Amino acid sequence: MYRIACLVFALVAACSGTPFPEGRIVGGSVASENQFPYQASLQIQKSHFCGGSILNRRWILTAAHCVLARGATEYTVSVVVGTLKRNSGGDRYRVNRLIAHPQYDASRFKNDIGLIEVTYDIRFKNSVQPIRVPTTDFTATNTYAVISGWGKLSSSGSIPGVLRYLYVKVISLEQCKAAQPIVTSTNLCTFNQRGQGTCNGDSGGPLVAGGVQIGIVSFGNPCAVGTPDGYTRVFSYYNWIRSHTG
Question: Is the pTM of this model over 0.85?
Answer without folding.
Answer: yes
